[in-house]
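[Q] Does anyone have a clean structure-token version of this?
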Amino acid sequence: MHVRGRGLPDEAELQLWIVDGRISTEPVAGADTVFDGGWVLPGLVDAHCHVGLGDDGEIPLEEAIGQAEAERDAGALLLRDCGAPTDTRSLDDRDDLPRIIRAGKHLARPKRYARGFAVELEDESQLPEAVAREAKRGDGWIKLVGDWIDRGVGDLAPLWSDDVLKAAIATAHEHGARVTAHVFSEDALPGLINAGIDCIEHGTGLTDDTIALMVEHQTALVPTLINTLENFPGIAESAARYPAYAAHMRDLHARCLARTAAAREAGVPVYAGSDAGSMIAHGRIADEVEALKRIGMSPTEALGAACWDARRWLGRPGLEYGASADLLCYAEDPRQGPGVLNRPDLVILRGKAFRPHG
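[A] Here you go.
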């Protein structure tokens, strides 16, 4: 196959040939031109989603396949799966589904995360061993639950002591894995960042001090804005039994855009993740890109956070010679908004063409 269009971020004319499922920048005689005259991008990245997670935790594999298909049809061809109880590794054998970078299962303490979602450790001293185990199960990432409601306290509170975090994150790094953590509130952030964590998910409780720590430690942020903006008020409303927690969630919701904008302005790398899998439907990465514009990102920067920049961060190729042919073609400029970005005219995955909306 042959495609021709304009690339991003430089808007230069781009011609690619696809041979045996891989990209070539050298002309191939007799290639079938399947797209000509629009925009050509690497496949989008959802840097925080959960293929294999449902409302109550584990789901049948066929349902997980449906989640992955929804991501593919919306142009998300590379997924960083930030924790799922369902074993989806068999999906790697499917040439019609997005590539998945797995973080294994969430690691939490008993009754300190959503029921059925995580491996629950009775003693926090078990965390380094559990990290080593999940490093073998995942694809180079580990997912910790950094904070959650402590019903004895009546508010969000950290799950792990600083010394245990240092040992666990060091163990992950020894196994060649990076570590990220679910964090809503303020208190869990210093211990995680100082322990050398590689990424923070959500990060609604960022302060000037913890933003400075993230810059110092080169910690990335995936803010999952659509989840925060759409769901924090409902979480607070359902938590009337815990008024301090409810008030805290409302405050975090009110400040999330300003805090995320401050992190970006300070130089924290910010990437797009929808948090699809439970409270957010799969296939909404375009909405997350749109939300990133609300923290000061230009349309090109916001798209890069879910495309070429995110691929570079995750160590995956874009449109380079010899890379897998995982790309999107749009008749209109995909920076216009979700109405365009969410509906690619042509998806090419592993060299196989799909017309998801044709």
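[Q] Thanks! Anything notable?
[A] The first helix runs from residue 61 to 73.
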